[in-house]
Design a protein that fits this description.
By secondary structure, this protein is of the alpha+beta class. It has 2 domains: about 120 residues, no CATH class; about 40 residues, no CATH class. The protein is about 30% helix and about 20% strand. It contains 5 helices and 7 strands, in the order αβααββαβαβββ. A 4-stranded mixed beta sheet has the order 1-2-3-4, with helices on both faces.
């Protein structure tokens, strides 16, 4: 099946179009330069995903008790996520770090370090530039991996920390309590988009 010829497709007039436009460029100069070097570095050992949302990588333990921490990762992303080819399990995260003297910027970089280290996922923070050397990147990857191993940080495996995703819409669920009926007083997980989404997971 052939792709349609764009010349034959009727384009909507300015007044008919939704107010969205394609962002150009998708990557900045330093991001694109780093991506090309990463492709050469990892070859076929990892799949590289650019601009991955933190909310797609991490879940929050007891989200109804930790709304503050949800806000810290909402609408934020890591520049590159390197995943194992067969399982797409995250193996490394790569973040470009801009040189800045602002306390806010330094605090943001430190939060990213703490976030990934606490979850046991190596974070490679690379100073932004126009050119990158593979030898330098290899050293940074090794440092990030050693740091995770030295701290003994592990991915969450304790079932008490696990929060189910909504079986209806796939969003995060929060712990709730039945207020009435035969299950009154019992805890359950309800979709965070309730009452718009009816997703429920009973406990026990």
């Amino acid at each position: 099946m052939k792709l349609p010829d764009l010349k034959t497709i009727r384009l909507k007039g300015p007044d008919e179009r939704l107010p969205y436009r394609l962002r150009e460029p998708f990557m900045s100069g330093p991001e694109l330069s780093l991506y090309r070097v990463l492709v050469e570095l990892v070859e076929d050992r990892y799949v590289i995903f650019p601009k991955v949302g933190l909310n797609d990588i991490f879940f929050i333990v007891r989200p109804n008790e930790n709304v503050h921490y949800f806000n810290k990762i909402f609408r934020k992303h890591v520049d590159f996520l390197l995943c194992e080819p067969k399982t797409l399990k995250p193996a490394f995260a790569v973040e470009l770090v801009k040189a800045s003297l602002k306390n806010e910027a330094r605090a943001g970089d430190q939060f990213m370090k703490d976030l990934f280290l606490g979850a046991g996922l190596p974070l490679v923070q690379i100073p932004a530039g126009e050119r990158y050397e593979i030898a330098d990147l290899v050293d940074l990857f090794k440092q990030a991996l050693v740091k995770v191993k030295d701290t003994g940080a592990l991915r969450a495996t304790d079932k008490s920390d696990s929060v189910p995703m909504c079986p209806v819409c796939g969003r995060m669920m929060v712990l709730r309590i039945h207020r009435d009926g035969e299950n009154a007083g019992k805890k359950y997980y309800g979709c965070m988009d309730s009452p718009h989404c009816p997703g429920v997971v009973e406990i026990g």
